[in-house]
Amino acid sequence: MADELHLEEFQAYLLAEDRSPVTIAGYVGDVRLFALWVEKQSKEPLTPGGLTNEAVRGYKQYLLDQANKPKTINRRLAALAAYAHWLEQAGYVKNARNPVQGVKAVRETALAPKWLDKKQRAALLRAVDKEVEDAVHRYPRLRLMYLRDAAIVKLILFAGLRVGEIIQLRMSDLFLDERKGSVVVREGKGTKRREIPLNARARKAILDYLRVRPEVESEYLFLGQRNEAIQSKTVQRAVGRFTETIDLQDVTPHTLRHTFAKSLIDSGVSLDKVATLLGHSNLNTTRIYTTPGVQDLEEAIGKLDNF
User: Fold this and answer.
1) Does the active-site annotation cover 83?
2) Do strands 181-187 and 174-176 pair parallel, antiparallel, or not at all (unpaired)?
3) What digits encode the pLDDT tens for the residues 76-123?
4) Which residue in 51, 122, 146, 188 could disulfide with 18, CB within 3.0 to 4.6 Å?
5) For the whole model, what pTM was predicted?
């Protein structure tokens, strides 16, 4: 299948377009799933010419019949549109128009992402500071790990970094002292970058960690037990370590990133500035944080008590 569909070439194209690793893997996987469906329907392997408007419409209906979520269906349609565009660019097909054109996306109901409210956020920060203080005074061997994990959590809460961005940070990406600082985040192949100012709490957490960070040749900011670059599971464990102490359930690093964005919106920061800080290229992606959450709706109804 892969050779006939030129998926390795498609993957290389997406990489050259500076798409994220998650997007690349998702698009290639979505094309494979479409090819499997076509082969099951027609009893013939999919070829580039088999990506037709009729086939795409049939596939969309199949996904609807299988009760797939609108977001999933729309992502698979987007993957097929990108693949069809590349096939024509590469000369494998000649289409008068993209075969996905005219296939309407499934309407999605806007749902607010999960974030921590002000009380939960404050409780988490208190828990982080307490756990670090206990480790420094009572468990010296764990001091390095707790200071590292505290810096990771505060970088997400106060700078909105993604897990993948955290683990890729280099020492040279930091610019900070006691009064000011920032962190440079590089995306994709390094052609995209954004510089995020760091507030006092984030700066202090990083400086505290740097004071105990081993002096090794590795350029990575956050190090594991063998002074190697940390992995994504380290970030996930760091968040879990502190949230479990205050009985916060199902909190992930992305929950903290959502909290960062929601806090900015609630503070009156403009949508374009929030998008820049988050690294969003499309304002519609950021607009989800203006969708009321449960607490927002409860507060709105609560105002009726004043009448």
Assistant:
1) no
2) antiparallel
3) 999 999 999 999 989 898 877 888 988 998 887 655 568 898 999 999
4) 188
5) 0.64
